[in-house]
Design a protein that fits this description.
Layout (H helix, E strand, L loop, with lengths): L1 H9 L4 H9 L2 H14 L3 H10 L6 H20 L4 H14 L5 H17 L11 H10 L4 E3 L2 E3 L1 H14 L7 H8 L6 H14 L8 H12 L4 H24 L11 H21 L1 H16 L8 H10 L3 H26 L2 H6 L6 H11 L5 H18 L20 H19 L4 H14 L6 H13 L8 H8 L7 H17 L1 H15 L4 H17 L27 H19 L6 H17 L4 H13 L18 E4 L2 E4 L3 H23 L9 H18 L18 H28 L3 H27 L15 H12 L2 H7 L16 H19 L4 H8 L8 H4 L4 H21 L7 H15 L7 H16 L5 H15 L6 H15 L22 H36 L3 H4 L5 H21 L8 H31 L4 H13 L1 H25 L3 H19 L1 H23 L19 H9 L4 H30 L1
Antiparallel strand pairs: 1-2, 3-4
GO biological process, one term: DNA repair
Pfam families: FANCI_HD1, FANCI_HD2, FANCI_S1, FANCI_S1-cap, FANCI_S2, FANCI_S3, FANCI_S4
GO molecular function, one term: DNA polymerase binding
Length: about 1300
């Protein structure tokens, strides 16, 4: 039968073939086809013949085709056919599909859709045919019966796609189905259907099936819905990452962990590569990605900025056209994240409203951690990002050339945190990726060398961390480090010191590197540049410190541990130590030559020797002998000769130039420190051993003793430095005398410290110390007196003390036991007046010292605060160490706070005339420092807040600085407990009561919430303080509104905006309206207050302008919300009403009051000066001041008008008349008054004209005052 069909098909006409096929039963035909196909015989030829004999123009032929199609689809789907046969049949079906009439095509498509939704497909091979059927169906122009009506082919296709996307897809065909849609012509709406369906299926897919599925989805996105595709992929992997981290951090059994980290990261990496490849081909996709992630910045970015999206962005930086945009987006996101964190930490109001979320910095470090799983495409972006952050936000140079040093207090600033994040990213990337190490090191070293003029401490810190982490690994990069050494003599000293300190661990493992450094340093030692020689000395000293000689005390025996103790390699073997000795003695020889160089070079040497000795005690002999021989050059050996030192030899005269040749005070200081350390550390260990010829320390002791005795006997005349001496900076003798005076003072300080250290608290030694101090003081007084008389007081140099911190602390402990005990045990009032020095009692000096110590510890030693507070607690016993560690910082700080609270209460309970404002101010400063250590949620914090509030309410003092510091403390505590708006309102009422009203006829009822607010302190002190606090509250509200706007715009873009638009934001909206309502009452009080001209008025006008800008922002937010929800809350209506009745009219009255006041002061200035020229100059100055002070007025009026403009829009949209409470004011009329202009132009100098002008102004300003009174009555009613 098959042969007959084929022979008939070979004829020219198909008539006989048609007749033959008509006779055949359909079942016979399908069986024949099945047999042929399964056997693999000429199924294709048979199928062509059947199609030739079944033209679609005839109904029977079309039906036969339909039957054959169904049969072939089942055959292909069964999997019984050979691959080539199945492909041939599918190809023929595709070719013939467009001949079908519409209704049959629809049937065929429906059959397919049904099969897919029912899950009856076997291998999905037949799905290749579906796009052709859909395409053919869409091209049919005639209407087809669908349901109860008729629809076009295009509409029919749409309905079928809708049905297909609404049904269930079998997991194994998802990729094929997605791929199929790329060949179907789809409208934007249909693409959205399909994309949503595919994204829903993501969660059911196996992890390994996701990359090909995402690839097909990206191909499909070229037809549209790019945003939905990207949004869906990012949201899915964000969710997957969260689930994975929860599984890993949870306590579940390992069986529950669905996927391994390695597998998940590899899949994510592949998908990121697919997306980047798609963006290269379709730039629109890249633009859409950036647009989507930028939109997230406005609102809650946690939904779209996640580790996956950051990794994706970093990979996109490899595409040149997007590189800059991506890094800008990441930079702004990072800084915004840190700013948000800073704002949240400083405000309890915001903490209650905004949930804690993960921050972008943690996400970026998460990406670094994940990049270990072959994410090479992300690594380069991470390195670039790290350097961009460090370059953009590193320490900056300020005007006087100094850098702003970052300390633990400053490092809380967003820019410093961004810089630290950059360094962390680079360090972690360096640890994980071997391939990129060389590049990171090169880039860091390049910046160290090329940016010598700008601060690079952050790069040096990073370099130090990198080298400390892996000195052995970096040996392979040693050539780059050696190359950097060649630039040492051209770099600033600070950079050289930082660089050499950082590379120290490398020098210990690489002999060649050490040798090349020594060559460079030796060359620098003989450079013509002073800085290069100083760098050489600095480098050699550092080497001496860190290459220990055999027999030196271990670091545990030293007072400080070695800075590079983290080196992972043991380099202190016996061989090394012997080699080190030769090496160190060579360096000492080089350094001895420096003793003939300039004072600056010698000074560095003297400052460094003591450190070297402590780290490398075997060099003691060499160092002490060097110092001894140097001192002998300036020492008078005869015991009776006065003075004991040759000061003349220390000064160098070259023509007119006189300069310091030998810093003798620093030489003695170095000797004293080395000697004390040597006697206390080395000599006790040598007892019992045979004494070598180490008499140097006895010689030095004798010399210092002799110098002490002779210095006490010497008078200032012996040094030629008495009162009659010339100390002016303009003459050679004066400069020389100044140098000698500073040397003598330095020597006195050194001898004081030396004698105190060997005194063992003996009376004789202390008398000697006092005699030396008297010598120091006499000279210091003469210098101060001479500097005071001279006109050039600014040029007189201050003398830096060379007393060590240990001596100062020992001395203070000996004198006062401790500052804290001395101050808290003996009240200032008890002290005799005779003990006062420069108006300060000893107790006050103790308090000042305490305050400086507290602030220094908090600023520079943040991690050690716990130990510091424990050391302060004198009740602690050694045995209680265990339980003692349990006591937290809050409890310890609270204990100290109570002592200072008692002191302040005692002070405040004294009479007004006995009140010591300086002491009170210091106490509040100490309390402010300590209160920062309290945990805001602790009862101790609440006690501190209520105590401060009570003090402010019950005590009235007129000292401005004390009042300001106390009120500042109150506000700083209050914001961490709750929003300070009610506090602001109460204080504003007090200010209004004390200063009176702008309308003199109105009597203001005095409130007395805070006694601290009085006539002297109300303005400007407290007024400026509350205005700055109000500004902070406005900033917080503005931040919240921006956040809400961002959320609404994101929700509006999503489908279910209408149901979600208002519900989640309800608490935040309510809080914003409450804040603005209370602030409005605060401004209501201040705009009626008769404030003095100047900063108070300026700041109030600026803050009012800000208030209206934020009210406008809130109105615009409700304009957005109204689109979906259609209404505004009642409390918003009340806020608008309040602004119309209690603020806007009063603002105009206040503007009139300010302008009136300015015109009066202008007139007064003109009258005061009688002479024409003087009057003109005075008027010009006054005019300039008036212009400056009235500048904010137009801005305020514009802000009010903008607010009213948007209120009109909101009224229309919400169908609520919000403008009924707003009244237009005449004060906004800025027209030129002709009659005044004529009078001024006619005769500027005549008094009557001036009076006329003033009366005009007066007339203009009366009317708002009447209005105000009426308004006041309305408010009261």
């Amino acid at each position: 039968m098959d042969q007959k069909i084929l022979s008939l098909a070979a004829e020219k006409t198909a008539d006989k073939l048609q007749e033959f096929l008509q006779i055949l039963k359909e079942d016979d035909l399908t069986k024949l086809l099945q047999n042929q196909a399964v056997k693999g015989k000429a199924a294709g030829a048979l199928l062509r013949a059947i199609f030739k004999g079944s033209p679609c123009s005839e109904e029977a032929g079309a039906l036969r085709r339909r039957k054959i199609y169904s049969c072939c689809i089942q055959l292909v789907e069964s999997g019984d056919l050979q691959k080539e046969v199945a492909s041939e049949i599918t190809g023929l079906l595709m070719l013939e599909a467009h001949h079908f009439p519409g209704p049959l095509l629809f049937e065929l498509a429906n059959e397919f859709v049904g099969a897919i939704n029912e899950g009856s497909l076997v291998n999905g091979k037949s799905l290749e045919l579906l796009p052709i059927i859909f395409t053919a169906l869409a091209s049919k122009k005639e209407n087809l019966a669908y349901g109860k009506g008729e629809v076009s082919g295009e509409e029919c296709k749409k309905q079928l796609i809708n049905t297909l996307c609404s049904g269930r897809w079998d997991q194994q065909y998802v990729i094929q189905l997605t791929s199929m849609f790329k060949d179907v012509p789809l409208t934007a709406e249909e693409v959205e259907f399909v994309v949503k369906k595919v994204l829903k299926v993501f969660f059911k897919m196996n992890l390994q099936e996701l990359p090909p599925l995402v690839y097909q989805l990206l191909v499909l996105s070229s037809k549209g819905s790019r945003k939905s595709v990207l949004e869906g992929i990012i949201a899915f992997f964000n969710e997957l990452d969260k689930q994975h981290s929860e599984e890993q951090s949870g306590d579940e059994l390992l069986d529950h962990v669905t996927v391994s980290s390695d597998e998940l990261r590899h899949v994510e990496g592949t998908i990121i590569l697919h997306i980047v490849f798609a963006i290269k081909l379709d730039c629109e996709l890249g633009r859409e990605l950036l647009k989507y992630l930028k939109a997230g910045q406005q609102g809650d970015s946690s939904s779209n900025i996640c580790p996956f999206s950051i990794a994706l962005l970093l990979s996109v930086t490899r595409i040149q056209r997007f590189e800059e945009q991506v890094f800008d987006l990441l930079k702004t996101s990072i800084v915004k994240s840190f700013k948000d964190l800073q704002l949240l930490q400083s405000s309890k109001f915001l903490q209650n409203l905004v949930p804690h979320k993960s921050y972008i910095s943690a996400m970026i470090l998460e990406v670094v951690k994940n990049s270990v799983h072959s994410w090479d495409h992300v690594t380069q972006g991470l390195v670039e990002l790290g350097f961009i952050l460090m370059d953009s936000y590193g320490p900056k140079k300020i005007l006087d050339g100094n850098t702003i040093e970052t300390n633990s207090c400053l490092s809380r600033m967003p820019s410093q945190q961004a810089c630290k994040l950059g360094a962390d990213v680079l360090l972690e990337t360096f640890k994980i990726h071997e391939m990129i190490r060389q590049e990171i090191l090169e880039q860091v070293l390049n910046r160290v060398v090329t940016r010598a003029s700008s601060p690079i401490s952050h790069f040096l810190d990073l370099l130090s961390n990198i080298i400390t982490y892996a000195p052995l690994v970096l040996q392979s990069c040693s050539s780059k480090v050696t190359e950097t050494f060649d630039y040492l003599s051209f770099l600033p000293l600070q950079t050289v010191q930082g660089l050499l300190k950082a590379v120290q661990p490398l020098l210990k493992v690489s002999m060649s590197m050490r040798d090349s450094l020594i060559l460079v340093l030796r060359k620098a030692m003989f450079s013509s540049q002073l800085d290069a020689r100083k760098s050489a000395v600095s480098g050699f000293l550092l080497l001496l410190k860190n290459f220990k000689v055999l027999g030196s005390l271990s670091s545990s025996q030293c007072s400080q541990s070695i800075g590079v103790s983290q080196v992972h390699v043991d380099v202190h073997s016996r061989y090394n130590s012997v080699a080190n000795e030769t090496f160190c003695l060579e360096i000492m020889d080089s350094l001895r030559r420096c003793l003939g160089q300039q004072a600056d070079v010698r000074l560095m040497l003297y400052e460094g020797f003591y450190d070297v000795l402590r780290r490398n005690s075997q060099l003691a002999n060499s160092i002490m002998q060097t110092l001894l021989s140097q001192l002998k050059q300036f020492y008078e050996p005869k015991p009776d000769l006065l003075p004991p030192l040759k000061l003349e030899a220390c000064v160098l005269t070259q023509g007119d130039q006189i300069s310091l040749q030998e810093p003798l005070d620093y030489l003695l200081c170095c000797i004293q420190h080395c000697l004390t350390w040597y006697k206390s550390r080395v000599i006790p260990l040598q007892q019992g051993e045979e004494e070598e010829e180490e008499t140097f320390y006895e010689d030095l002791d004798d010399m210092l003793e002799s110098i002490t005795n002779r210095m006490i006997k010497s008078e200032l005349e012996d040094f030629e430095l008495d009162k009659s001496a010339d100390f002016s900076q303009s003459t050679g003798i004066g400069i020389k005398n100044n140098i000698c005076a500073f040397l003598v003072m330095g020597v006195c300080e050194v001898l004081i410290e030396y004698n105190f250290s060997i005194s063992n608290f003996s009376k004789n030694k202390f008398e000697e110390v006092l005699s030396l101090f008297m010598c120091y003081k006499k000279l210091s007084d003469i210098l101060n007196e001479k500097a005071g008389k001279g006109k050039t007081k600014m040029t007189s140099k201050t003398h830096d003390s060379i007393l060590s911190m240990k001596f100062v602390s020992d001395l203070l402990t000996a004198l006062f036991r401790v500052l804290l005990w001395r101050y808290t045990s003996i009240p200032t009032s008890v002290e005799e007046s005779g003990k006062k020095e420069k108006g300060k009692s000893i107790s006050l000096l103790c308090l000042e010292g305490l305050q400086k110590i507290f602030s220094a510890v908090q600023q520079f030693y943040q991690p050690k605060i716990q130990q510091f507070l424990r050391a302060l607690d004198v009740t602690d016993k050694e045995g209680e160490e265990g339980e003692d560690a349990e006591v937290g910082v809050t409890q310890r700080a609270a204990f100290q706070i109570r002592q200072f609270q008692r002191s302040l209460l005692n002070l405040l309970s004294s009479q007004e005339e006995d009140f010591n404002s300086k002491e009170a101010f210091l106490l509040v400063t100490v309390l402010t420092s300590l209160s920062k250590l309290l945990e805001p949620s602790s009862p101790q914090f609440l006690q501190m807040l209520s105590w401060t509030s009570k003090i402010c309410k019950e005590n009235s003092r007129e000292d401005a600085s004390f009042c300001k510091s106390l009120m500042n403390l109150l506000f700083s505590l209050h914001v961490l407990y709750k929003s300070p708006v009610t506090l602001l309102r109460d204080v504003s009422q007090d200010i209004h009561g004390h200063l009176g009203d702008i309308d003199q006829d109105v009597e203001v009822e005095k409130t007395n919430h805070f006694a601290m607010v009085n006539l002297r302190t109300a303005a400007p002190t407290i007024c400026l303080l509350v205005l700055s606090q109000a500004e902070k509250v406005l900033e917080e509200v503005d931040w919240l509104i921006t956040k809400l706007k961002g959320q609404v715009s994101l929700e509006t873009l999503s489908e279910d905006a209408s149901s979600q638009a208002t519900a989640p934001n309800h608490p935040a909206e309510k809080a914003i309206i409450m804040q603005l309502g209370t602030l409005l009452t605060f401004f209501h009080e201040l705009v009626q207050t008769a404030l003095p001209s100047g900063s108070c008025v300026d700041n109030l006008l600026k803050d009012l302008c800000k208030m209206y800008t934020i009210l406008t922002a809130l109105v615009r937010y409700y304009l957005q919300v109204c689109r979906s929800s259609g209404g505004i809350p009642k409390n918003m209506e009340k806020l608008v009403k309040l602004s119309g009745s209690h603020l806007t009219p009063l603002c105009y009255s206040f503007i009139s009051y300010v302008q009136n006041k300015k015109s009066k002061s202008l007139k007064y200035t003109g009258e005061k000066k009688k002479e024409k020229t003087a009057a003109a100059a005075a008027t010009a100055t006054a005019m300039a001041r008036v212009l400056r002070e009235t500048k904010p007025i137009p801005n305020l009026i514009f802000a009010i008008e903008q607010y009213e403009k948007f209120l009109i829009h909101l009224s229309k949209r919400s169908k609520v008349n919000l403008m009924q409470h707003m009244k237009l004011s005449t004060s906004r009329d800025f027209k030129i008054k002709g009659n005044i202009l004529d009078m001024v132009l006619r005769d500027d100098g005549e008094d009557e004209n001036e009076e006329g002008t003033a009366s005009e102004h007066g007339g203009q300003n009366k009317e708002p005052a009447k209005k105000k009174r009426k308004k006041e009555m309305k408010c009261l009613s």
